[in-house]
TrEMBL record, chains A, B:
InterPro entries: 6-PGluconate_DH-like_C_sf, DUF2520, NAD(P)-bd_dom_sf, TM1727-like_C_sf. Residues 122-246 form the DUF2520 domain. Coiled coil: none annotated. Signal peptide: none annotated. This is DUF2520 domain-containing protein. It comes from Maribacter aquimaris.
């Protein structure tokens, strides 16, 4: 049995509690949080505290707080034992206080209130300063996920930036498409199956090979007609730059 | 029974033949194509011809050819009867010859060789010059899809541009993310579950509300660090512009 304390009451904390509670090999012995209202939701399932000095002994302390808060909260912790990890993609392990056994437990996924995700599929990137701690993290991660990956802080930082491109920027494309549909009075939800298929396609096919559309074909007629259709300055600028980037990508091989 | 002739031997033609063959109410009586090699694949299942003067009578002639070829092939057709439609998002119905009964049969999806798609979920946008022809198209489309939508050429053109943003540009984001992963030596496939979840999320949540990440939070520290990590000039420029676009989107409400 691995005893865990979760620090934080946000989305990641909530999803971790949910998945930990479904597995016999893990026991969440306490949740710490500063936000009383958010914390009270956790109190329905496990012991809680908002007093950092009352944190109880555990094998692993998982900080699921915002990037900005990691260093400050970690510095106020007074752990007698156990392994301290955080769940951030971009903060180095060495940002945690040196006096602690330190590690990383980074689930690579976007978590939304009210949406359940299948943890078995989510890659968990782990890092630790020594082998014993690495093994403990691996044991914990393997209980909830089939995809556990050892990774140093530098690689994790790169992966996090790649995730921003693949998730945040992609979602912004959905938004721009949605905004354009609203302006033109066509229902955006007609695009849902296309959006799903675009994402599923690259599970088998490299994005380089999956690319289609007028920019890939360098179909200047359509590119020009599309630009003429776009009245919004921001849409126009992004359409131009993204088409240019696609043309450059495939132009190399022309 | 609706008798159909398919004109074209590409991806869309192949996917249409596949789905038409699984339904009793539709009979593909012939496939016409200029590319003998591609055409021969169709010949395993249905009658074929590469001679445009030998096209046989049918209720509906579906042109599944590239946008550039539509006008030229349509002008060479000599149909005694039946309804002529094309499957393009961006070509107006009126581009088809006036002497024919004309219409549109536009399945809004990206089709890839070897990937089966669930047609039941694919929106089919239809248009016709008169009500009887509209009803025939509606009947055909409803056999294969649960989502049949009447739409004029102007709306369809808008939807097609929205699809370019939501599909082509999104796939390019995947590509850039993949390219960056390769440069940094981290496995891109770790991002697959994130990419799937990002696409699935907006089936329930508007993209505006689904947006996360440093640009949405206007987290200047992270944005600066990310820009410093990007060495590729193209990555840098796109990162900057997309982050700016996201900041502007949410800045409105700050």
């Amino acid at each position: 049995m691995i005893n865990v304390v979760i620090l934080g009451t946000g989305n990641v904390a909530k999803h971790l509690l949910d998945v930990f509670m479904t597995h016999d090999g893990i026991k969440v012995v306490q949740v710490y949080g500063r936000n009383q209202k958010a914390l009270s939701v956790f109190g329905k399932f496990v012991p809680i505290t908002s007093d950092i000095s009352k944190i109880i002994p555990a094998d692993i302390y998982i900080m699921a707080v915002s990037d900005d808060a990691i260093v400050e909260i970690a510095s106020r912790l007074d752990l007698k034992e156990g392994l301290l990890v955080h769940t951030s993609g971009s903060i180095p392990m060495k940002s945690l206080p040196k006096k602690n056994r330190r590690g990383i437990f980074y689930p690579l996924q976007t978590f939304t209130v009210g949406r359940t995700v299948d943890f078995k599929e989510i890659p968990i990137c782990i890092e630790a300063e020594d082998d014993t701690d690495y093994d403990i993290l691996k044991q914990l991660a393997s209980i909830i996920s089939n995809k556990v990956v050892g990774m140093d802080s530098k690689q994790r930082k790169s992966l996090h930036l790649a995730a921003v491109m693949a998730n945040n920027f992609t979602n912004h494309m959905y938004f721009l498409s949605n905004e354009f549909c609203e302006q033109k009075g066509v229902p955006f939800d007609l695009l849902h199956p296309l959006i799903k298929e675009t994402a599923h396609k690259i599970q088998d096919l490299a994005p380089y090979d999956a690319q289609t559309g007028p920019a890939r074909r360098n179909d200047k007629g359509t590119l020009k007609k599309h630009l003429a259709q776009l009245k919004n300055k921001n849409h126009k600028e992004l359409y131009r730059l993204l088409s240019k980037s696609i043309r450059k990508t495939y132009g190399k091989k022309l």
